[in-house]
Amino acid sequence: MAPVGRPRSDASHAAILKATYELLQEEGLARLTLDKVARRAGASRSTLYRWWPSRGAIAMEATLDTINREMSLEPQGDNALAEYRRLLKSVARAMRGGTGAIIAGILAECQRDPETLRLYKEKLVGPRRAEIMPLLQRGLADGSIRADVSPQTILDMTFGAIYHQLLLHIPTEDAWMDGVIDILVNGIAAKPSR
Amino acid sequence: MAPVGRPRSDASHAAILKATYELLQEEGLARLTLDKVARRAGASRSTLYRWWPSRGAIAMEATLDTINREMSLEPQGDNALAEYRRLLKSVARAMRGGTGAIIAGILAECQRDPETLRLYKEKLVGPRRAEIMPLLQRGLADGSIRADVSPQTILDMTFGAIYHQLLLHIPTEDAWMDGVIDILVNGIAAKPSR
Amino acid sequence: MAPVGRPRSDASHAAILKATYELLQEEGLARLTLDKVARRAGASRSTLYRWWPSRGAIAMEATLDTINREMSLEPQGDNALAEYRRLLKSVARAMRGGTGAIIAGILAECQRDPETLRLYKEKLVGPRRAEIMPLLQRGLADGSIRADVSPQTILDMTFGAIYHQLLLHIPTEDAWMDGVIDILVNGIAAKPSR
Amino acid sequence: MAPVGRPRSDASHAAILKATYELLQEEGLARLTLDKVARRAGASRSTLYRWWPSRGAIAMEATLDTINREMSLEPQGDNALAEYRRLLKSVARAMRGGTGAIIAGILAECQRDPETLRLYKEKLVGPRRAEIMPLLQRGLADGSIRADVSPQTILDMTFGAIYHQLLLHIPTEDAWMDGVIDILVNGIAAKPSR
DNA sequence: CGATAATCGAGACGGTACGTCTTGTCTTAGG
DNA sequence: CCTAAGACAAGACGTACCGTCTCGATTATCG
C-alpha cells in the first residue's frame, strides 16, 4: 500500500547531503549551519528539519558513505594480527585527510547533543566495530591473540589513540601508527613460550 | 615598577572562575554562556572579554585547579610500571566524576576554536605529560620498559583510550581500565627471556 | 502574483507600533530601546530589525497616526488667513501635549541618523506641508497674501517657530502663538492701501 | 586662602576643549564619545567627568568661542531694522558652515539630557538674545518697530526659522534668509499710515 | 475527475547568544 | 587635591542561528 500524499523528493534529499558534505569539507561541522545547507541545496529549512533531528544527524548521514568507503577492509588471507596491522594503517591514512577532521567535528557535536551521540554510536561506531570484530575473533580462535583480553578493549585502545590525535589536530603519521600498533600487538599477542 | 591604573580585581576574577565551574558542573560547557557566567559572578561581560579570549579559555582556567588536583600523582617508591598502573587507575577514577564530562566538553570546544585547542595543549596536556614523563623515563632507564617504544606514544594510547570513553559517555570502569593497562603494560614491558 | 513564504504578521506589526507609542509617551525617544519595545510587544528583536531600518523609523511610524490625527485640519469656508490662523493655533495646542515632546525627540534622532531624517521629511514634513499648502495658495490666488512671498518660507517660519519652542521645552501657549501669528499675518498680508 | 593640593591643569583643560572641537567638526556630536575626547586630548576620562556634567556641556564649552565669534555683531549706526536685517544675514551665513551642524547636534543632545538644555539656554540662547535685544528695544523706542509685538517673539521666530533649517540639514541660503527677513520686517514694522 | 493528503520552497516569527561599544564610577600610583 | 591610566558593572547595539510556523504550489493516492 503506497503512502498517500506527495512522495519525498529524492532529488532534494540528495542535494542536501551533497551540499552538507561540501560545506563540511570547506568549513567543518563547527561552522555548518542548516541555513547554509538549505541555501546551497536549494532546499528549505523545514525540509531539513522534517527528515533529520539535528545538525549532527545530517552531517553524519552526509559523511557515512565516504567514511565507510575509506575505512573499508577487504579481508585478506593473512593471519589476524598482520591483517589488523594493515587495517589500522589504512584507517590512520584515511584519517589524515578531510575525513578525520569531519569525524572530530562529529565527535565534538556529540558532546552538545545526545541524539547525535546516539546516532554516532549506532551508525558509525557499531558497524565499524562489527566489521572488524571477526578479525579479532579469528585471532582469539586461532590462539594468536591472548585469550584473556577483551576484543572490545582492543578496539577502544585502537580508536582511542587515533581519535585522540584527531581531536588534538595532530596528523596520524605512519611512523606514529607503527609505534601504536607495535605496542598493541605486543600487548595482545599470545606469548609463545611461557 | 608598579603598574598604572586601577588594578585587576581579584574578587571579580575569583568569582568568575567560581561561577564558571559551577555552571560547568550543572550544565556542561555546551550550555555555558558568558552571559550566565557574568550574571552569576556579579561581573560584567566586558570583564570576561577583557581577560579571556574565548569561552573555552574561561572554562579551562576554571577547571584547571580541579583537574590538576584530581589527577595529581605523588610518586611512590614502587617500580615504574606498577606506579604507572596505579596512576592510570586514579586518572580513570577521577574521570568518572563530573571532571570527565567537563574535559570532554573542552575537547569538543577545541574543535570549534583553535585558540582553545592551543590553550588546551599548553595548559592541560603539556603539564600533565611533563608530570608523568619522568615515570616512564625511569622505566626506560631501569629496563622495565622496552627501549624501542616512544614514551609519547605510550601516553597517546593511554589518554586516547580514556578520553575516547569520555567522549562516548561511557564510564571508565575499573575493570575496563585494568584491561587497558594490562594490554599496555604487556605491550611495553621488556620481555625478560627472548 | 501572490507573495511567497509566510506572510507578515499584522498582529505583531500592530503590537510593535502600540508598544513603541506607549514607551514614547512614557519615557521619550531618547530612552527608547528596541529591546524594551520587543519585550513589551511580545515580539523578537529580529522582527523589528527586519521591518525597520532604525529606531527613529519605528518611532516615526508609531507616531504618524497620532500626529496626522492631531494636526489634521478640516478646511472651513473662511478666508485663507483666518483659516491659517486657526490652523496654527490648533497645531500649537496639539504640540503642548505629549506629541510635541515626541516630535522633538524625532527631530533629535534625525541629527544622529540620516535615514531617520530622510523619513522624517518624507513621511511627516512633506505630507503636512502638502496639506496646508493649498490654503496658502488660495490666499495667494485671492490676493489676501502678498504675491511676492514664498509659501514655503511661510511654512518654514511657522513650523520653525513652533518647533524651536518644542526643542527648548517651552510650551507653545496660545498667547505666544497669537503673537507669532500676528507678526506672520502682518508680514505676509497684502497691504490694501499703499 | 589658596586652595590645597595640585591645581587644576590649564593645559589639560585646553587640550580637552581643543580635542572636542576637532572631533565635533570631524564627526559631529552624535558620534562624539568622551573616550575619544580623552584619548585625543591625552587626558583621562575621570578628568572630563570631574569638570563637566555631561557630553553636551563639553561640546557647548568647546564651541562657545567659535559660536560667539561667528555670530557677533558690531553695531553700526543704521536704523534698527536695517541693522537687524544685516545681523540675521550674518547669522545665516555663519550657520551654513560647520557651526550650524554643531548647534543642531547640541539641540539634539538637549532632548536627551535636561542639564545640557539648561546650559544651552543659559550659555548660548541667553547671551545671544541679550546681545540682540537692545537693537530691538531701540527699534521699539524710535517707533520703527510696532509697539505691540514682543521682542522675545521676534527672536523666537528668527532663530526658530534658522534652526529649523539646520535641523533639517537645509542650508540657510541668502535668498531664503531674505525672504524670511522680508516677512519678518513687514510683520513687525510699524505701519506709517493707518 | 475531484477530493484528500503529504511534500516542497519560501520566508516570517519568537528566542537566545554573540562580541562590541559607551557610560559613569571606582581605584590605583604619582605629581 | 589633581591627574593619567585603566578596571569595573551595566546595558544597548546589530548580527547570526535556532527551531517553529504559515503560506501557496506541487504531486501523489484514493474514492
From TrEMBL, chains A, B, C, D:
Domain (HTH tetR-type) ranges: 10-70
DNA-binding region: 33-52
The organism's place on the tree of life at top rank: Bacteria
PROSITE patterns in the record: HTH_TETR_2
InterPro entries attached to this UniProt entry: Homeodomain-like_sf, HTH-type_TetR-like_transc_reg, HTH_TetR, Tet_transcr_reg_TetR-rel_C_sf, TetR_C
GO molecular function: DNA-binding transcription factor activity; transcription cis-regulatory region binding
Keyword Transcription: yes
Pfam families listed in its UniProt record: TetR_C_11, TetR_N
Keyword Cell cycle: no
Gene3D superfamilies given in the database record: Homeodomain-like, Tetracycline Repressor, domain 2
Alphabetic keyword roster: DNA-binding, Transcription, Transcription regulation
Entry protein name: AcrR family transcriptional regulator
Organism: Nitrospirillum iridis
